Amino acid sequence: MATKNNDSYSADQITVLEGLDPVRKRPGMYIGGTGLEGLHHLVWEIVDNGIDEALAGHATEVSVTMQADGGVRVIDNGRGIPTDIHPKTGKSSVETVLTVLHAGGKFGGGGYKVSGGLHGVGSSVVNALSSKLIVRVYREGKIFSQEYAAGIPQDDLKVVGKTDKNRTGTDITFYPDASIFESIKFNYDTILDRLRHAAYLTKGVRTSLEDEKTGKRYSFYFEGGIQSYVKHLNVGREAVDEDIFYVDKTVKDVQVEISCQYTDAYTETIKAFANNVLNPDGGTHLTGFRSALTRVINDYARKNGLLKEKEENLSGEDTREGITCIILVKLPDPQFEGQTKNKLGNPEVRGYVETVMNENFNYYLEEHPAVARKIVGKALLAARARKAARAARDNILRKGVLEGASMPGKLADCSSKDPKASEIYLVEGDSAGGSAKSGRDSKTQAILPLRGKVLNVERARLDKMLANNEILSLIKALGVGIEDSFDIAGLRYARIIIMTDADVDGSHISTLLMTFFFRYMKEVVDGGHVYLAKPPLFELVKPGRKSSVFIYDEAELDVVLDAAIAKRIADGTAVIESSSERFKQAGFVEQKRYKGLGEMDADQLFETTMNPEKRVLVQIKVADAERADSIFNKLMGSEVEPRKNFIQANAKFVKDLDI
C-alpha cells in the first residue's frame, strides 16, 4: 500500500533540459492532436504526476473535479512541487516545472525511482495549452499559489495562507485554450475509466472524480490491485477456478507483479504495463511471461502424466487460450521503442519476469492441483482444436478456396482492381442483396449477400468458423486470410460496409459481424476500414409522389416536420384543423416507416444508402479496446446473467423497437 513519506525533495532534484516555446505552435507533437483525445491528454498528464507520487510512496489520493466553469482541478496529497529557487533557472521550482520543457524530478535527480511520466513535459505542456492555470502547493505548513495565462506567469509564486504542517500536495486547476482545441468539453466516462485503471495499477491508492454540473461522483480503491483488475476483466466470463494467481517480487531494482486467471473464453486477454504505462505491443516483459508460462505448464503436464510421452508439447497459443493476465513491472530506467511507449525494450526485464514466473507459477500449480488439472485440460482441448483448425485450413488452402482466383459464387464483385477505390457491402439477406446488386455502381461497389444469422465467433474456435459458409465467404472475399495467414496487405476493399435492416435482427447481425472483425481482423478495424450503413427509417412522400424526403432517425424527423409546418404556417398554406397527423400538417401525403432494406427498390436503395454523395456511413472505431472487449464478451459470450443485467440497465434508453 502506498503511504505518506516526507523524504527530502528539493530544488536540486529538478533537472532542466530545454524551453517551452514550441508547444502552442505545434501541440500535436506533445499531446497527439487537438481533438478530444488531445484534450483529455491534458488531464492524464496532471493525474500521472500524482500517480507517480503514489508510486514513489508519497501519496495515497488523487482526485479530479470537472468544474462547472469548464476547468479541471486535480489534487494529490504527495510531497508538493518544491517551492525554493532553482539554481539553474533562477525561478521558483514551481515556475520551472510549469514553464520549462523537460523540467522535473524524473531525470535522475533522485526525485523518483519509478515514474510513468518519463518525458517531464506534462505540467509545462498543460500550462502552455491552457488559457488559464492556477497552481497551489501545500508544503511546510504553507499554501503557495501562482497563476498563469497561456503558459505565462501572471505573478510570482507567493504564500497565500497557512495549513497543517502534515498536509502536503499539489493542486492544479486548468482551463483548456478554446483557440487551440476543437472542443473543450470533457467526457466524464473517459476520465472515470482512466482513474479506475490508475487505481487498479497502484495498489492502495484512492482515485476519485466529481462532475460539478451533474453532481455525479465516483471513487476507486482496490486493495487487491491488479488482482482486482483481473477480476474486473473477467466479469461475464466463467472462470476455470475462482482462485487468482498473484505474485509480487523484486529482482535487483525491478519490481515484477503478475496476476492471472483462466476462463472459458477462446481468446487471451493479456495486458502488459511498465511503470503503469500500458504497452499495447508488449515488449520484453511480455516475452518473458509467455516463455515461462508455456514451459511451466508443459513441465507440469509431463511430470503428472497429463501429457503422454509421445504427445508433442503444448504450444504457447494452447497454454494462453482463455487466460486473463496483468503484467506490471516497475523499473528505474525503462526503454521504450518509439515515442508512444507501445513496447518495452529493456532486455534484462525478460529474464527477471521469466525467473519470477517460472518459480512462482510452478509453486502455484503444485499447491493447487485441481486448478492445475483444469488449466492443463483446457490447454489440451485448445491443442486438439488447433490441430483440427489447422487441418481444416490446410484442406481449404489445398483446394484453393481462400485464393483470390476463386471468389464466392454469390459475390458480385466490382470491376475496379484498385483497393483504394473499391468497397464491399455485406448485405443482410438475398432480397436486399438482389436490390443492392441491381442498384450499385458496379465499377467500385461489390455486394456480398449474407444469409441468416452469421456465426457467433465469441463462442466458436477457428475450426468451427472455417466450416461456416458465411464466414468462409467473407474471409475469401476480403482477401486478408485468417489468423496465421492474415495479411492486411491483401485487403481488396478500402471500405467494408455492413448494411442490415433497421430492426432488432439487423442490429444482431451487425453485432455478430463486428464481433468477427474485432476478434479475428482487428487490424482491419484499426485501419478504419469497417463501416455501418445507415438506411433511412422514414420516407415522407410529397403530393403527386414526384419526390420524397428520406429521414434517418427520429430526431431528424421532428426537425424536418417542425420546419415544414412552420414554413406552411408562415406561407398561410397549412390547414392545421384538418388533421392531427403532423406529417400531413407539414404538407406530405404519406409517411412510410421502413423496417427492411428489401422494402426499397434498387434505385431507392442506391440513392438512400449506397450513393457516396448522399449516404450516411458510421465508421467503426475502437477508442477503448478494453471496454470493447468487455461489451463483446457481455453481449456475445456464454454467460447469461451479465447480458440480462446489461439489457435491464439500458432498456430505458430504447426509443424504438421492431419485433
Helical proportion, percent range: 25-40%
Count of helical stretches: 21
Biggest beta-sheet profile? 9 strands, mixed
Number of strands: 24
Strand content: 15-25%
* CA-atom Rg in angstroms: 29 Å
Task: Give the overall average pLDDT.
Answer: 84
Gap between N and C termini, in Å? Answer: 53 Å
CATH homologous superfamily of the largest domain, by name? Histidine kinase-like ATPase, C-terminal domain
Shape: flat
- Per CATH, the architecture of the largest domain is 2-Layer Sandwich
- As residue ranges, the low-confidence spans are 106-110, 651-659
Classify the secondary structure makeup into a structural class. Answer: alpha+beta
Number of domains: 3
Topology-level CATH name of the largest domain: Heat Shock Protein 90
Characterization of the model:
The protein is α+β, with helices and mostly antiparallel strands and 659 residues long. The protein folds into 3 domains: 11-221, 2-Layer Sandwich (Heat Shock Protein 90), CATH 3.30.565.10; 226-390, Ribosomal Protein S5, domain 2 (2-Layer Sandwich); 419-535 and 618-636, Rossmann fold, CATH 3.40.50.670. Strand 3 (130-139) and strand 4 (142-149) form a beta hairpin. Helix 8 (284-303) packs parallel to helix 10 and helix 12 packs across helix 19 (602-610). The longest helix is centred in the middle third of the chain and has 30 residues, at 369-398. It is flat. The protein starts with 21 loop residues before the first helix and ends in a 9-residue tail after the last helix. The model is unreliable at 106-110 and 651-659 (pLDDT under 50).
